[in-house]
Amino acid sequence: MLPGKDFTVRADGLLEFAPGIIHPEPDIRRLADALPVLYAQNIAPSDRPLYYMYRGVCWAKDQPVFTQHDIRYDITVILPGTIEGEYIKTVGHFHPLKPHSAETYPEYYEVLEGEALYLLQKNNRSGDVEEIIAVEAKKGDKVYIPPSYGHVTINPGSSILVMANLVESNFSSLYAPFKDKKGAAYYYLQGQGEKGEFVRNPNYQNSVALKLMAAPSLPQPTPAVKGKSLYEAFLADPEAFKFLK
Ligand SMILES: O=P(O)(O)OC[C@H]1O[C@](O)(CO)[C@@H](O)[C@@H]1O
């Protein structure tokens, strides 16, 4: 699934899909939904859209493969801009444990357009932060969210961010850990220069240094993605993605 080929991105961030692609109406997260995890407090709730989530996108002919393997392909569009100086980001969530396992569900992202900052955060038992990594990703980069890590995606750029993910299709995400702390352990705010700056979230009892990494330096969980988009790679070899389940 590629912008310009399978769908076009309108100036307002909504997508127009080619005929033959199954695409639900987008779920929209608005400013009012993000209030509990923002750096700034006392912001008035509003309907301002922040991001659009198209869940379960695929070519009609490919749907049986996704259904058979309980895998979903989503496309998320995060608008550029800031809220009181904080770059627009997803609300963020953790994933539950896989059944009969001590491991939580992972997830696999790919940047289709624009740039992204993925915050990957592991918490300790008391809900404070054990590790936090910021992954800088550009068009074509793939970012694996390993088990045990919650995740937040930030649009740090001045253009629309379009990203895709492959994820197990039946579980419900866990929002409380980030909401309870008013977000991840770091916020990304407008800085003095062109780039933003990370600011520690004081609602965590402990303080952990942020690790900054570039997406291409991260290990990939399967060689099946080499030279292919996540969509193509999954369709070519769905068994190679069974680690998602
Ligand atoms: O649930 P949040 O934190 O708003 O984040 C949305 C993201 O998570 C997903 O639901 C997949 O985990 C995507 O559809 C979307 O990119």
TrEMBL record:
GO MF: glucose-6-phosphate isomerase activity
Isomerase in keyword set: yes
Pfam annotation, one family: GPI
Broad class of enzyme this protein falls into: isomerase
Domain Glucose-6-phosphate isomerase prokaryote: residue ranges: 46-194
E.C. code: 5.3.1.9
Signal peptide (UniProt feature, chain positions): none
Protein name: glucose-6-phosphate isomerase
Organism: Thermanaeromonas toyohensis ToBE
A Gene Ontology biological process term: glycolytic process
Keywords: Gluconeogenesis, Glycolysis, Isomerase
Annotated catalysed reactions: alpha-D-glucose 6-phosphate = beta-D-fructose 6-phosphate
Pathway assignment: Carbohydrate degradation; glycolysis; D-glyceraldehyde 3-phosphate and glycerone phosphate from D-glucose: step 2/4
SUPFAM superfamilies listed in its UniProt record: RmlC-like cupins
GO cellular component, one term: cytoplasm
Family in the record: Belongs to the archaeal-type GPI family.
Keyword Cell wall biogenesis/degradation set for record: no
Domain of life: Bacteria
